């Protein structure tokens, strides 16, 4: 995807690339910083920045996969070799994985739900920014985002939640369209139309 594509044209064809189809090269540190600078340009009532990022690159992704495998085996020692490999490679499917951590908390003026939605907006903006920078991306959570043992390992606080793990890399796979909802199924018109 080129960075000079018009926004409307991009939105007409935007889709996530499956994590298993992501490969090197991934964005450099400088490119990641620019992607993050773009990602934080989201609605954020009260300017709270109710999210933070953890960027996993290089060998740290391997360590994270080994941690996921260890915890998965503690929960289910019967995992076959294929399932173990899936756990081991969770963070090496893409050259870069960015955890978006929602830090939403009660506030005297800003509803917590608005803060959570801002974290979701950051996840989508990360994908948009990665695509605009010439990379493919995917937003995943999977069981890891909800597992207390894994969250403790990656130092996610008890009051925090993982909004998503954004996988970023390159791909040679052509984008494949998937069914989208029919507007008639998801839109209610009220008033004159």
From TrEMBL:
Q: One Pfam family name from the record?
A: Nitroreductase
Question: This protein is called what?
Answer: Putative NAD(P)H nitroreductase
Give EC number(s), comma-separated.
1.-.-.-
Mind listing the GO molecular function terms for this protein? oxidoreductase activity
Species, as recorded: Agrobacterium salinitolerans
Q: What is stated as this protein's family in its record? A: Belongs to the nitroreductase family.
Going by the record, the broad EC class of this enzyme is: oxidoreductase
* Domain Nitroreductase residue range list: 23-169
Binding positions for FMN per the UniProt entry: 14-16, 41, 45, 139-141
Q: Does the keyword Flavoprotein apply?
A: yes
Alphabetized UniProt keyword annotations = Flavoprotein, FMN, NAD, NADP, Oxidoreductase
How the cofactor binds, per note? Binds 1 FMN per subunit.
Lineage top rank: taxon? Bacteria
Cofactor annotation: FMN
Q: Which InterPro entries match?
A: NAD(P)H_nitroreductase (IPR052530), Nitroreductase (IPR029479), Nitroreductase-like (IPR000415), YdjA-like (IPR026021)
């Amino acid at each position: 995807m080129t960075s000079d594509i018009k926004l409307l044209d991009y939105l007409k064809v935007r889709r996530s690339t499956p994590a298993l189809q992501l490969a090197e090269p991934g964005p450099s540190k400088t490119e990641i910083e620019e992607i993050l600078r773009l990602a934080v340009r989201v609605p954020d009532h009260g300017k709270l920045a109710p999210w933070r990022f953890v960027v996993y690159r290089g060998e740290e992704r391997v360590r994270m996969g080994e941690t996921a495998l260890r915890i998965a085996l503690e929960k289910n020692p019967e995992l076959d070799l294929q399932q173990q490999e899936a756990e081991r490679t969770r963070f090496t499917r893409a050259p870069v994985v960015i955890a978006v951590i929602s830090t939403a908390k009660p506030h005297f003026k800003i509803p917590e739900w608005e803060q959570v939605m801002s974290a979701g907006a950051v996840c989508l903006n990360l994908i948009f920014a990665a695509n605009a920078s010439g990379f493919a991306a995917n937003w995943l959570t999977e069981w890891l985002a909800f597992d207390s043992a894994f969250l403790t390992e990656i130092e996610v606080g008890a009051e925090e939640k993982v909004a998503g793990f954004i996988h970023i890399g390159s791909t040679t796979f052509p984008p494949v369209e998937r069914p989208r909802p029919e507007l008639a199924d998801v839109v209610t018109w009220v008033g004159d139309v």
